[in-house]
Amino acid sequence: MPRSDSDVFPQDGSALRLVAWNVSSRYAAILVDTALGLVMLPFNIAHLGQSAYGLWLLSASITTHFSILDLGYGGSLIKFIAQYRAQRSVQALNEITSTLFFVFALFGSLAYLGAAIAAFNLGWIFKLTPDQAETGKWVVLAVALPLALNFPFSVYGGIVGGFQRYHVNSVVAIGTSLAVAAVNVGVLLSGHGLVTMVFATTVVRVASYFIYRLNAHRIFPALRIRLAYFQRARLRELTGFSVYSALIDWGNRLNYSLDQMVIGAFMGPAAVAVWAVAERIISGTQLLTNQLNGVLFPVVVDSDALQQQDRLQRVLIEGTRFSLLMVLPIAATLLALGHNLVEAWVGRRSPALMGAVPVIQLLAFAVAVRVGNASGTIILKGAGLHKMLAWTNILTGVVNVALSIALVRRFGLIGVAVGTLIPIAFASIVVLYPAACRRVGLPLMAAVRHAVIPPLWPAVVVGCMLALARDLAAGTLVGVALLAAAGGLIYLGLFFGIAIGRSDRVLYTTKALELLGRRTVPSLT
Description:
It is a single chain. By secondary structure, this protein is mainly α. The protein folds into two domains: 13-243, no CATH class; 258-525, no CATH class. It is built from 20 helices and no strands.
């Protein structure tokens, strides 16, 4: 049986701690965003109204799709910065960043132009009244500005990422989120409306970009972005890696970012607000549970280059197990306590938002499948099957959109959720994970037995227990949180006490103690 060992993780204790610091700071930023989202959503709905809030989300959703102009260069940028940093080539680093800075400046200009065209034709795109279309126009024009500037400024983030100092920008992200929330609250409490609030928060977001720029220059003082450093050869070098990365990103966008537009086109902004309640919870779950797999990518690349098949097997087994360990207890909690959560959060104030409950429950299955399969997709992407992954993602996204459009007419929001769940589950379970198993030479049933079953059955048990005990939640967010925490503790007890064996418990304890700077591992029985 393949088991995790030190080959799967960095051997250097300081490197392991650096990875842990980067990941933990990212988690801190996500937790802040999630907490702010839980607080700000009911506040904004109460002060703007459900229709205006839905209009805000619907208008902003247009701008997010212009980020496809990235064309995969963002991921390519980090790869080549890390590569040339290892080679200590200042010239190459400046040529890479300068080339992409000016390319991204062009992309950002095109993105804003496209957003402006959409803004002045909003009434033709969505089911809006003339007043809503006018308000939405100004919202789009404001929200599109930081999106457009993000293109050229992302090269500074690439420097920070390539130098493995993600935690530096995580601190800025936390500060920006807090500042945006404070401005949001201040503007609405002072009696101003949606447009003023969106413009005010846009100013904060734009200001944060200059802090990211400062961070990049502090980490890499020799950074020089000059038009003279623009090199077409560097652009060709970047493009060779970015093409399929772009296809993978576009497929993910089709799968997870077009639902609001489908709902807006067929049901209007009020329904978008209901969907937003579910989407906020599900996207937060995905962010919280899917941070490990980015760390595994360089391990996969190195193992593939060295033809270490046994190491790839360990990555797949342990990566899948840990991903499911993170996501399954949360998914089980959402299935069992989804009604309690929505009712205590926003349902009493806005009863119409209770329609988000079945959407949350359906999408909980989708996010569990996707996060559980994330290590498999990392294997495919980093071990030579990125083309297969790219085309599968694209096809899955197309089927998602087609099913959502077909089902929204008859089943409403539930139809959109089902249209999302079916293709994601089919692609992950039937196509991608079996392909990852074949790539590493591991029988599918062996992978299921060692990676899926141990974290799965405790989640089923805890989900049933929470469903039986949900009346104890007392109708408050605190009650829901306490009940969910109790379920989480029971889950961990079942997993570490029964589902895995003694050798795995010793291994996991060893790694935890290494992060704490200790080397002695107590005997576990």
